[in-house]
Amino acid sequence: MDPTSDMLPARLRDAGILPSVQRVAVARYVLATHDHPSADEVLLQVRRELPAISRATVYNTLNLLVERGLLRAHVLAPRRVVFDPNLDRHHHFIDERSGRIHDVPWSSVQVPELPELPGFEVHEYQLVMRGRAAGRAAAERRRGTRR
Questions:
Q1: Closest residue by Cα to residue 32 from 9, 7, 1, 72
Q2: Lower Cβ count inside 10 Å, N or C end of the chain?
């Protein structure tokens, strides 16, 4: 279902979420984006539609969407939580230059064997890759300007 559709309030209700105007606005943005926005980025976008929405309402709504299984929260960089509407198993690539996070299909990464962790059972894992566009990195190495 398209998160921008009129069916969004019903989808929220099905997840046990009362669809207030503010919650629908947050869900409409975050469930439709292909980016991995932080809570503050969601706040900036939703304030275009609802200028008076509070930071607390956005944070609480995002946490509720995660709790009810409509969204995932990831810590992909120190002190930076991002939200991901892609609930399918996948990995991430972070462009070091732009900070943009890209989804990487699960099947495209082969992990030969997970290490045994005594006393633990692994239920899920993901690989986070960091780098930059290959052409740009090579050009910067040639110029000696790579950061």
A1: 1
A2: C
